[in-house]
Structures are given as structure tokens and as C-alpha cells.
Amino acid sequence: MQLKTSLVAFIAILASGCSSLPEQESNKQTSQVSNSQVESGDTVDKRDPLESINREVWDFNYQVLDKHVLRPVAVGYRDYMPLPARKGLVNATDNLDETAAILNNSLQGKFSDALTSLGRFTINSTLGVFGLFDIASKLGLEQKHESFEETLGVYGVDTGPYLMMPAYGPTDVRTTAGGVVDGMYLPLSDLNIWASVGRVSVKALEARIQLMDQEALLEDSFDSYTFVKEAYFQRLEYKVKDGKVAKPQESKQDLEDFEAFEEELEGLEGL
């Protein structure tokens, strides 16, 4: 069960990273160059000191665990779970994150957003039957989610080394620490093991289903490992800066190297 929980968490992170690509087409691949250094003729990413090990783990996670376990489960979930039930489960799991959003918005000085998160949690936990129905959104209170990982980033804490964990996937020190802290808030801290597994599983399965539309892009990428790593770090930056990410200067060589890649990304606009 622990393996399954970690696996679904891995694909959730992967999917969230890939979902940010349309918003940052050019930035994604060029940041790979700008965050690297050349040593002995080889390009070494300073964020990824354990790349050789991480690549082996990525191959196992994606080619074995995802291919033979998670994707088939996600397909069955998509095909046989009634859509209203799926929507209700997503709403309920999102509602559990509202208390973390209240605290992290406050820590970042976003007091208006913190009040919005408080209103969402109150309304959806009562009128929305423990969050199964997103009544708050219908009343104009849109989700303002913030995590402790984002709060640390706002305060200037670096991500630390990139790690591809077996059956878990991409992570870093800041994200791992932030996830632990967010899990200490009520009501998440009061969930038993089965409720926690159910919450993570629902989020991950829905994320994996969304990723299916982008599988060809991942398969056709020059390097799937680098593709996921860049998407992961871009997603972190995008979240910390609330989408206000500066576009780096792109050299002629960069544009030539990734011209085909960017053409593929154009097809993702609007996803």
C-alpha cells in the first residue's frame, strides 16, 4: 500500500509539472541551459548533482511502474467511475487543502486570499456536504491555494538538490519539507491512513488522466527525463511567483536546438 501511495504521488507531481508547459513554452527548455555549467566538455545541471542515479530511477518509475500499474488503473477509473462521483471526490479532496491555503496565504501577506480560503472551507464543509459540492465557487469564491513549499520559496529558501525517488518521482528538499508541514494542519492531520491514501489516490488518478492527452508530447521529447525535470522546476517557480515569471534571453543556438520541441508545445495552447 505504501508503494501504491508513493506511486500516485509521483504521477501527480509529474502531471502538475507537465500541465504548466503551455504557459511557459520557451522558458522551459532554455532554463535548462541557464541553470547548467560546463565541466570537461559535459553539461552539468547544478540543480541535479545525482543525475546519473536519478535517470535510472526515472526509467524504472515511468517505464515499469507507470506503464504496468498506474496508467491501467487510471484508465479503469476514468472509464468506470461515474463522472458526478469523480467530481465530488475531487471537490472533497480540494476542500481538505483549504486550511493550508488559509495559513500559507496569511504567511505570504495575502490576507484577502486567506479570507477567501476561509470562506470556501466554511461554505463547502457545511452547505457543500463536507466538500463534495463546490458551492463556494458558484458564489464567486475561487480557489486561492498556497502551500508551505511556496511560502518557503517566497521567503527565499532554495529548492535544494533535485531527486527522482523510487515509486515517488521528482522532488526536492524544499517541496518535501513543505509537504510535511502542510500535512500537520487540521483536518489533514486527523485523517487515518486509509483516508490519506484515498485522498492522494484521487488526486493522482485525476492528474494521470489529464496527462494522457499529453503522453505523445512526452514520448516524442528529445529526453523525457530532462522534459520532466524542467517542467517540475518551472512549475515550482511559476507557483512561487504566482505566474509572474520573467522570460529569459534566448540565444540563436538555443532556439535552433529546441525549435522542433517548441513546435510541439504550440499544440498545447489552451489545455
TrEMBL record:
Q: Which InterPro entries match?
A: MlaA
Gene Ontology terms: biological process: intermembrane phospholipid transfer
Biased composition regions of type Polar residues, renumbered to the chain = 22-40
Q: Which GO terms describe its cellular component?
A: membrane
Looking at the record's lineage, which domain of life comes first?
A: Bacteria
Q: Where are the annotated segments for Disordered?
A: 22-46
Q: Which Pfam families match?
A: MlaA
Keywords tagged on the record = Signal
State if Signal is listed as a keyword.
Answer: yes
Q: Which PROSITE patterns match?
A: PROKAR_LIPOPROTEIN
Question: What family does the entry list?
Answer: Belongs to the MlaA family.
What's the name of the protein? ABC transporter
Lineage, uppermost ranks: Bacteria, Pseudomonadati, Pseudomonadota, Gammaproteobacteria, Alteromonadales
